[in-house]
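Long-time lurker, first post. I've been practising inverse folding by hand and with some scripts of my own, and I keep getting stuck on stretches where the C-alpha cells seem ambiguous. Below is the full C-alpha cell string for one chain I'm working on. Before anyone asks, I'm not after the true native sequence, just a reasonable design that respects the backbone. If someone could post their per-position residues I'd love to compare against what I wrote down in my notebook.
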C-alpha cells in the first residue's frame, strides 16, 4: 500500500490574506500542491505551475459529494 504524507506550514496571521499550502507526497514522491483559501481550492500537480485545477467552494463540494 502506498504511503501518503501531507506537509504544511501556517504563519500567524497569514491565513486571512494568503492561501494555506499543503504539499502532498506519495511514497516520498511529490504528487502536487493543494492551496486552500477563503475563495476555494486550487490543485497544482508537481512541476506544473500553470496546469492546475481551480474550484470554488461550491464546485468543490459538488465534486466531492457527487463523486
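-- Answer (accepted) --
I ran through it position by position. Result:
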Amino acid at each position: 500500500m502506498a504511503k501518503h504524507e501531507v506537509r504544511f506550514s501556517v504563519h500567524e496571521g497569514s491565513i486571512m490574506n494568503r492561501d494555506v499550502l499543503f504539499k502532498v507526497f506519495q511514497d516520498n514522491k511529490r504528487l502536487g500542491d493543494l492551496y486552500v483559501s477563503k475563495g476555494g481550492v486550487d490543485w497544482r500537480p508537481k512541476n506544473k505551475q500553470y496546469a492546475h485545477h481551480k474550484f470554488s467552494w461550491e464546485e468543490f463540494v459538488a465534486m466531492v459529494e457527487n463523486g
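A couple of notes from the structure itself: Helices lie at 57-66. The longest strand covers residues 29-37. Happy to go over any region you disagree with.
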